[in-house]
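User: I'm designing a mutation panel for Exocyst subunit Exo70 family protein and want to avoid disrupting the core. Could you give me a predicted structure to guide residue selection? Please restate the sequence first so the numbering is unambiguous.

Assistant: Good idea. Sequence first, for numbering, then the predicted structure tokens:
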Amino acid sequence: MGIESVLRLDCKNFQKKQWMPIYRWHQVLLFTIRVLDAILTESKQNHISEAAKEPIRLLLGLASKVAKVKKSPEKLFCILNMHRSLFDATPILTRAFDAEFVKIEVGGVVAALKDSARGMLLELKILVQTYRPQHELAQGSVLTITEFLMKYIKLLVNHTGNLDPILCQGQADDLLNIEGVNLTGRLVSGIIADLESVVQESSSYVSEGLKFLFLMNNTDFVLRQVEESDVRLMVGAQWIKKSHNNIKQYMRCYLCSSWKQVVHPLETATTSSEKRLKNSFLKIFYPTPSPLRSFESALNKVCKSQMHWKVCSPVLRVELRRSVIEYVVQAYRAYRDNLEESVSGDLEDLEPNLKSKLTDLFEG
């Protein structure tokens, strides 16, 4: 998955080549269990010879060693597969061997795998909570950790049936600090909350306008990943509603911080006729740029500064672009409608040009 490189974890001792045989461990166990089951069925015996324990002992020994390695979030799913395979194999192992062997040797490895899984999840939470992005904020796009962590979370949800027994209350309280529909739901909600904190803190490193675009992009990405997967069943309708509201709020804040200064000359120009006459008299002695010229200058400046800003979601990009166009064009129309007919009639219609210029935004 590459989650460890994203979290800047030293993973040189966990190369893919070294781990591929270990990832196949559960397949080997499954094959061995099928052979044992076939022998028991054919021989119509309740137990088989001591020699048959040897391959099982070898597999258990490898699983025990894997459970002791450095707490590596990327290897969590290997641990989960081992745990699930042993759990599924226990009924046949109990039939094939004595209860003492299963209780001590198999039970000991299962307990070690559970401890290892909890340790890996705790390491993941710590790495996420202490994560700080580097050189990722220039365009305001989705953080790499946001993309990878949502993939990771979806895999966790696929292991719900296996994770719930591992996250039994009392042994994993430091992982379950948020309410949820089940133990895995509490874990997932907590990791998402940690990610949201990372995004919020990261947003303080960029300018005001880009800050809200960045928050919009990351919140929208997380929300879409949740709504398009079973994660939505874990976080609940309330979280989904809150995220939709947050995106709307970020959009309003973006419009205000980036475009209010653009339309300001037009808005201030729509004043009473008395004030306009007074200003016209003063302009004889103190000439100032026309509101329209100031507006165009501010518009060009903002468009130029935001030309490389990016909105990743095509749906969100269209919605935000439409909001910006409405915001700017409304101010322009109000200014034009407020002018005297003789003046507004001679005024060039800038609306098509405005829409064309604003349509180029947010492509990155």
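For picking mutation sites, this is relevant: Confidence is low (pLDDT under 50) at residues 281-288. The chain has 16 helices and no strands.
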